[in-house]
Design goal:
binds pyridoxal-5'-phosphate
């Protein structure tokens, strides 16, 4: 607390990101990063940027990256907005498109940054409970609202919503923006990018942090019709003209262009996930059906708290949320390499024997 703070600072409840430990010998399965490095073409593109041009500002429109994203999704460049991580894209979305007279809607169990943005921008919100199977039921969102946002697949559950369900919502919810946060979509869920041309109120956000292994570069993007993109651009140009530096623009462009590497990486993560789910079920875990690069699982007999602490003592870190009570016994486990999965299963066997 300080008398120098603006009034709003006193009211903020900031987001707490997953731990980035300094120790190097940990099996790090807590922040949904990709266990495989980025495409070698990304590294070559970054090296090429280390040049005299660093004294110059980057392109404020990131045109090269915008073009590459547009080409990848087969949409016009006017449908693409890029930002410094999808967190920044989401922040601009809350301010530019979700602040209206009515409260916005999002699931009670979801990405915990959403309520933080509401606090920052003074946006009213209502949470909608996931159903008994921890799924989003779109019928529950058919009520007056200032906007709707949910991840697909949802975080931290990993559960996916079929495209037809999202379209069912878009058909009736025509008066406010529907944001589908597709941070994890490439690991097995159905993308709604193809619906953007038909629904002027649909905005789809993506990140390069997960399927393209670039969490350290900070690049995200949104796809929507030009009026939505213009709103985001107006906020961006009132905040920071250069959110993406020269490395981010070049590295992210190379990553988007290397489709084969991206597909192979996703395939490996999905195969490891399927094997890990079977192993955990054999150890007595209940695992929610995941189409993400993480799983959400609880053990029939051991508390989430205890399991997370026991894993930590064995140098394995996973994410545990103590609130709300409904998920306090779950662990959110990022899919790592096969070797990391084996280390996890070995540690769990050891813990469960005692
Ligand atoms: C659902 C969801 N959306 C968005 C993000 C933000 O991703 P980034 O800011 O790294 O692009 C995350 C990060 O974990 C996430 O879980």
């Amino acid at each position: 607390m300080s008398k120098f703070w603006s009034a709003i600072v006193h009211e903020l409840t900031p987001y707490v990101p997953g731990e980035q430990p300094k120790l190097t010998n940990l099996v790090k399965l807590n922040t949904n990063e990709n266990p495989y490095g980025p495409s070698p073409k990304v590294l070559a593109a970054l090296e090429a940027e280390v040049a005299d041009s660093l004294r110059l500002y980057p392109d404020p429109t990131s045109a090269k990256l915008v073009q590459a994203v547009a080409k990848f999704y087969n949409v016009p460049a006017t449908h693409v907005f890029v930002g410094n991580g999808s967190d920044e894209v989401l922040a601009h979305t809350f301010q530019a498109l979700l602040k209206h007279d009515q409260p916005i809607l999002f699931p009670d169990i979801t990405y915990s940054f959403y309520p933080v943005y509401c606090g920052l921008y003074g946006i009213e919100y209502q949470t909608i409970a996931l159903n008994d199977e921890f799924q989003i039921d779109v019928s529950d969102y058919k009520r007056p609202n200032g906007g709707i946002i949910f991840p697909n697949p949802n975080a931290p559950t990993g559960c996916g919503l079929p495209l037809a369900e999202i379209e069912r919502l878009l058909e009736v919810n025509t008066e406010s923006v529907v944001v589908v946060d597709e941070a994890y979509v490439d690991f097995g869920a159905e993308s709604v990018v193809g619906l953007v041309a038909r629904y002027p109120n649909l905005l789809v956000t993506h990140t390069m942090s997960k399927a393209r292994s670039l969490a350290g570069l900070r690049v995200g993007y949104a796809i929507g019709q030009p009026p939505l993109i213009e709103a985001l651009t107006r906020v961006k140009d009132s905040f920071n003209s250069y959110p993406l530096d020269r490395f981010a623009i070049s590295g992210a462009t190379a990553a988007i262009e290397d489709k084969a590497y991206f597909e192979e990486t996703c395939r490996k993560v999905v195969a490891t996930r399927q094997a890990l789910v079977r192993e955990l079920q054999a150890l007595g875990f209940f695992v929610l059906p995941s189409v993400a690069n993480f799983i959400f699982a609880r053990h029939g007999k051991r508390s989430g708290d205890e399991l997370a602490a026991s894993l930590r003592a064995r140098n394995i870190i996973v994410r545990h949320f103590s609130k709300p009570a409904r998920i306090s016994d779950f662990l959110r486990i990022t899919i790592g390499t096969d070797a990391q999965s084996q280390a996890l299963v070995k540690a769990l066997k050891d813990i469960l024997i005692h």
